[in-house]
Specification:
- The complex is a heterodimer of chains A (about 475) and B (about 350).
- Chain A is α+β, with helices and mostly antiparallel strands and about 475 residues long.
- Chain A has two domains: about 90 residues, no CATH class; about 375 residues, no CATH class.
- Chain A is about 60% helix and about 10% strand.
- Chain A contains eleven helices and 15 strands.
- A four-stranded antiparallel β-sheet of chain A has the order 3-4-5-6. A three-stranded antiparallel β-sheet of chain A has the order 7-8-9.
- Chain A is rod-shaped.
- Chain A starts with a helix and ends with a helix.
- Chain B is mainly alpha-helical and about 350 residues long.
- Chain B has a single domain, classed as f41 fragment of flagellin, N-terminal domain.
- In chain B, the strands form two sheets. In chain B, strands 1-2 form a two-stranded antiparallel sheet.
- The chains are: A alpha+beta (about 475), B mainly alpha (about 350).
- Chains A and B meet through α3, α9, α10 and α11 of A and α1, α2, α3 and β3 of B.
Amino acid sequence: MSLSVALNTAKNSLQANGVQMSVVGRNVANQGVASYSRKIANTVTIVGGGVHVASIGRATDTALYKTLLKATSATSAQQALLEGVTKLSETIGDPELEFSPAAKLGKLTNALQQYAAAPDNSILAQAALGAAQEMAATLNQATETVQATRRQADADMAASVTRINGLLEQFESVNNAIIKGTVAGTDITDHLDTRDSIVSQLSEEIGVSVVIRENNDAVLYTDGGVTLFETRPREVSFVPTTVFSATTVGNAVYVDGVAVVGGASTMPTTTGRLYGLATVRDEAAVTYQNQLDEIARGLIEAFRENDGVNDIPGMFTWPAGTVPPTGTVVPGLAAQIMVNPAIDPDQGGDLDLIRDGITVNYNADGVAGFDQRLNDIITELAQTRNFDPASGADPTNTLKDYTTSSVSWLEFTRQQVDNEATYQMTMYERSNEALMNATGVNLDDQLSQMLDLERTYGATTKLIAAVDNMLQSLLDAV
Amino acid sequence: MKATFVSTYGVSNSTRLSILKMQTELATKTKELGSGRWADIGLQLGNKTGRTVSLRQDYLRLDSIIDTNGLVKSRLDASQATLDGVRTMAEDFVKTLLAIRDGDTGPAIAKTEAKNNLEALIASLNISIDGQYLFAGINTDVRPINDYFAPASAAKTAVDNVFLAEFGFTQNDPAIENITPAQMEAFLDGTFAGLFDPASWVPDWSSASDQNVRSRISTSELIETSANANEEPLRMIAMAYTMVAEFGSTDLAEGTYQAVIDKAAVMVSNAVQGIVVMQARLGTAQERVTSATERMEVQLDILNTHINELELVDPYETQVRISTLETQLDMALAMTARAQQLSLLNYL
């Protein structure tokens, strides 16, 4: 009865061919989906010579996949950081626009120089007042920009946490389907693709590593080692802060009760968008704010008056009305600094006090051409003074050089972050390309497989016809 | 065993990305070529950004000092010219005094000239530029010298009073012919001279401050840049003119008259020496202002060069880069189109 065996084998072949054709169809249909991996029909020869599609597999490359996850996390961390630092550098702008605190200080010095050359000229006094007001406003606005950047980073962290929780939920249902499918032996390849894509998305937000256990069950850890998912998703929690000032400290993000970013942590996360955002919120912006506060303090110090016993704020003051101790940052001073209302005619002040001294009367004779005090201020501005060494800019310098070193600090940070972001982006693109090449679909390959299948199908049908003919001849002979 | 594999989507994706990158760079370079400066100065210079900001401030600072030096220089020039006038007038007056010493018509001429000169001196010292009185020291908004000939002027009253106190009659009284040369000399050197001591000079004559205006003529030089009406030579000239104008009368005995004239001539000659010294001092200040300005102008050029070195792009390099990018883009696009043709699909 070997003819019926041949017929049976041919039937098997047609069935297997159909399955293989459907796999080619799936591959061609999904060739433009980035996260899709190439499906392969695993055929086996069954006893008696038949053929059978035992399972559907997919092309994978675990090593490349892990590299991609790392590159994704590192890239999104750097990009979040770059975005934050770029916002901070808006306080400087193009040097040509003379927009930075350093430029405003220069402008103020020049206005005082002009005024000192003709101390009886009230137009020049007005100009000096205007320059001083601009200086104070620039520091106030810069603080606002810095704190808005922190607030934005904090809100983005909240959004990121929401996204992580959402993704973990999806992860749970897909993971369950995979375990069930694995046990039942059904085709789980599309689920595996989905799960990989969820992990990729997670890795944008937080550094993540995957461990596969029995029955394709996956466990997720953060790059710091905290469990993100094991059988069930772990809670990722964060309390956003809505109002930021220089003294505000943002909250940490907790995974499974352990702080991972934004606070003291024993298992810190060091990649992913969350990390980048926390770095902007807690480091870059805070350091820059300290520098602005030191510039404000330096201004109050340089313009101070002395009645022989105490230092009293002069042209620049703040609500506390004292001259803060030198070399120590006063958090939030840049937000509070203002021009002394006593010299502003709009607030009932007297312009001449710029020349004569505000609290202390340096111009005892009350003469209009008194230039001593103005020249003293200009000299004082050129004096070396001490700034808080923790502020990141050059601590022993003139006020002008301190402000410009703050510019240098910020732009240097931005340049470095930008270089790092570009490097990480290239890494990401290369590993993505490598992974795609390893697991993606090649149309020509699929088409040639299709030609093979077409040929096999043709040959099989010919075989069936031949067997049919042979059986027919046999029947005819009977 | 796995043969080299290429994902169709991966290939087109990476081509797309690299074309995007080239287009972004092309846009940046075109902007740089147009403006001549780096598209993003802070990103390009990094920790050198502070330097360009600082250099720009130095530039503006020097520019502003050069500007104020212009003002200082005009004040110095005007003061110098005024002192020139005062000195010339004084020298001419000495000549007149010497010429009329022994003549009969002399006294009237000398008296008138002294009166005119005193008026001219007061007007000269009250010169102002842009609302600032040049000889007022730092008290720049008050007219430094009071008008001697104004009704009830303090200076004139004081002069009349001391004369009356010394001799018991006024200087217009015919009795003055009895004053001996010795008496006259004692009076002129005594109470009359006392009126021109610094203590009486302000406030009778002058409202000026003794403190001269000081100006910052470079970032580090702070110098005096004015003369003031309280300086000794000017007081002495005023004294000599007043002496002749008030007491150089024809009614005086000849010897006494000659004593007045001699006294005035000596004082004016001494004062002229003093004015030369004042002028020399102002000249030094003028010299320093000019040289500071010249020096700062040179510094401006240097600063400008430095700023340009930091901020400007090399247009040739940029141009070359743009050409290269254009060629690359051209090739990449052509390759993409060609690669699309290379599919098994086209042969089935």
